[in-house]
Amino acid sequence: MSDALHQLPLAELAKRLAARELSAVELARHFLGRMERHRGLNAFLDVRPEVTLAQAQAADDRRARGEAGALLGIPIAHKDIFVTRDFASTAASRMLEGYMSPFDATVVDRLAKAGMVTLGKVNCDEFAMGSSNENSAYGPVLNPWDAAAVPGGSSGGSSAAVAARIAPVATATDTGGSIREPAAFCGITGTKPTYGRPSRWGMIAFASSLDTAGLMTVSAEDAAWVLSAMCGFDPNDSTSVDRPDEDFARDLAWPVQGLRIGVPKEFFAPGLQPDVERAVRAALETYRSMGATLVDISLPNAELGIPVYYVVAPAECSSNLSRFDGVRYGHRAKDHGDLADMIKRSRAEGFGPEPKRRILIGTYVLSHGYYDAYYIKAQQVRRLIANEFQQAFTQCDVIAGPVTTSVAFGFGEKAADPVSMYMSDLYTIPGSLAGVPSVSIPCGFGDGANASRPVGLQLMANYFDEARLLGVAHQYQLATDWHRRVPAAFAA
Amino acid sequence: MSLCKEDVQRIAHLARLAITDDEARRTLAQLNDIFGMIERMRAVDTEGIEPMSHPLDGAQRLRADAVTDIPDRERNLANAPARQDGLFLVPRVIE
């Protein structure tokens, strides 16, 4: 029985834990064993079995005292962007090598209070900047479906760990697509809630007006359970939305009969690879056969999302990353002159090429004489894009389309050309700029040489409509089994 | 718009990033590519559009001016690259 534990939905794990057929310690040991066996994926950056097993024992003790939460004893991996007291928090950067946070991120704390057991910290692009995981200072994660393919980024460790079933669920973060793109590339379910729903407190900041915590799970149903515990108002986050906690699983059974699905024509323009289009159109057809209506919509300025994003995100990044000065924490250069020289050299040595590039872009667009022409202009176009979403949601309940233009690309294919790498997020950035909730769910595989590389379907809903959005995703997963597929090397 | 190598060095100084001549030269081409891509956005008519700084246009929330957190000095100093007598240590600033 225990061999198949990693194949079970969270609901089944919860049932066995509740029935005392399974202990949290046994479950944690099972996943720790898989993590060890599949170290070659490079998904984990910090693993401390003694900490994990102590947390699992604490969950078992809570249950013995009569507690009965659905997530009590369920293991989870945390993206290395969330700070943790008991595991190092590096943001996959040399800058923070060995950093031990004095506190837990709110997201980590809430999930721990719900009884979830931390398996370790997972790899990502440095400071969550990247679309392939090639920007990690600790080496890239491999895609469990095809070791020659990138797992996507920035949450590539989270997506690979869940795809390989070495973690049943993982936290992730999304600034321009960093949950949805890797979820699509790894054939799992990625959930980015409404901006401001989950707390940013203790999430190492990249672009504060965009950064959103979320989840990598096998299914939308699993996501709904964990998201309910993860999200909630946090006075420590100045942009946290003050709304009561919600049960995001409440609409899972809502049928899609009568659902209006908006299909933006801009998401099917030239550039979209034929195999991705085929799989996504087939998924839309599945929804139609289940009683949903497809509505043609337009998001005319969505394609300007990338230029807008590459002004707004670097601007905020240059401001956020100014805290790394080699004084209070982080890397300090060995050889240096005065204080100013120490700071400059520490930053030059500690940051990798992508954070440096974005700091330079951001510093420039915020500098005297360029602020209005770039930063203010980008914020204005951002509003135009957000307004188009509101216009679209008068015609439809959810918006559907591809997550990416292609299936996972190969290592090195885009690494030398930042602009071509940035285009990876063409379909995910508009939703990030608007701040609407969005999921990526697996809907097939590529063609020919890409037959082992998954394709993702993106679904977006209006602000605070996560419960319905996850219900729409869940209904598709009741009708299909793409989300249950496991790469052969990781099934047993 | 096109940047030159001196622009890159000036921006790097503003960003407090040490940069070699060689790095500045390599970075220059990439930055110009990126700004070329950004240029498309500048043609959009945004007359009268209010800049959007936050997706939900939330007003900045204020809290009572009260102590909410007692910092743990030892834990906060534990990650410092250099420390002395319970303080962060930096190179001499005043001769």
Report on this structure.
The complex is a heterodimer of chains A (492) and B (95). Chain A has 492 residues and is α/β, with parallel strands linked by helices. Helices cover 36% and strands 12% of the residues of chain A. Chain A has 15 helices and 11 strands. Chain A has helices at 10-18, 24-37, 49-64, 106-113, 156-163, 180-186, 220-230, 274-289, 305-320, 339-350, 353-365, 371-392, 418-422, 429-434, 466-479; strands at residues 44-46, 75-79, 117-122, 169-174, 189-192, 212-217, 260-264, 293-297, 398-402, 438-445, 454-461. In chain A, the strands form 2 sheets. In chain A, strands 4-6-5-10-11-9-7-8 form an 8-stranded mixed β-sheet, with helices on both faces. A 3-stranded mixed β-sheet of chain A has the order 1-3-2. In chain A, strand 10 and strand 11 form a beta hairpin. In chain A, helix 5 (156-163) runs parallel beside helix 6 (180-186) and helix 9 (305-320) packs across helix 12. The model of chain A has no long low-confidence stretch (mean pLDDT 97). Chain B has a domain at 5-43: Histone, subunit A (Orthogonal Bundle). The mean pLDDT of chain B is 91. In chain B, helix 1 (5-14) crosses helix 2 (21-38). Chain B has 3 helices and 2 strands; from the N terminus they run H-H-H-E-E. Chain B has a two-stranded antiparallel sheet. Chain B is mainly α and 95 residues long. Chains A and B meet through helix 9, helix 10, helix 11, helix 12 and helix 13 of A and helix 1 and helix 2 of B.
CATH architecture of the domain at 5-43 in chain B: Orthogonal Bundle
CATH superfamily of the domain at 2-251 in chain A: Amidase signature (AS) domain
Strand content of chain B: under 5%
Q: Given the helix and strand composition of chain A, which structural class is it? A: alpha/beta
How do the strands line up in the largest sheet of chain A?
A: 4-6-5-10-11-9-7-8
Q: What is the CATH domain class of the domain at 2-251 in chain A?
A: Alpha Beta
Euclidean distance between termini CA atoms of chain B: 44 Å
Low-confidence stretches of chain B: none
Radius of gyration of chain A: 21 Å
